[in-house]
């Protein structure tokens, strides 16, 4: 009985150690992302002077943008991996919403730098592996608004710099090109809650009125190892 238990224990250890040794490599890489802002479950009353309705959020104030990222990918076994990422994103303004004529031309953009950790579960083994990932990160948001001078308002710049915790879910597919190279294609939904609003000096324009900076991201990333 003791011999059988020992053999069984060695067998279990062997099962877990083989994929670990085969997969215990760090892959490095990066990629590009297309971002689409989303209104993200919230409602906001911007004020009686703005007829934005109940459906108000990041998609109301910003247009689709882009980003790039760098990071690492480590496989514990063929079904589980951990991923780290440093990413930059840029969103331009929504021209229809930011049309405040008495201020002249308004330049608005939303920039984001984030450092995140991601855990992935793969639904299959082999060269093509669909996966589901959970992401948690720290997001540095730099939201900027510039007013050009007019007869009723002078030129001015307003910038908010804030740090926020955010989280996301990602569904994608990992494609093994070679034993040392793979491509990840993923669709991610990111939630960044509790964006604080600020008013301009005269109190007529609210900065960061969107409350949540939620967005979709479609990315393609290339990873490789030595």
From TrEMBL:
<dbReference type="InterPro" id="IPR011250">
    <property type="entry name" value="OMP/PagP_B-barrel"/>
</dbReference>
<protein>
    <recommendedName>
        <fullName>Outer membrane protein beta-barrel domain-containing protein</fullName>
    </recommendedName>
</protein>
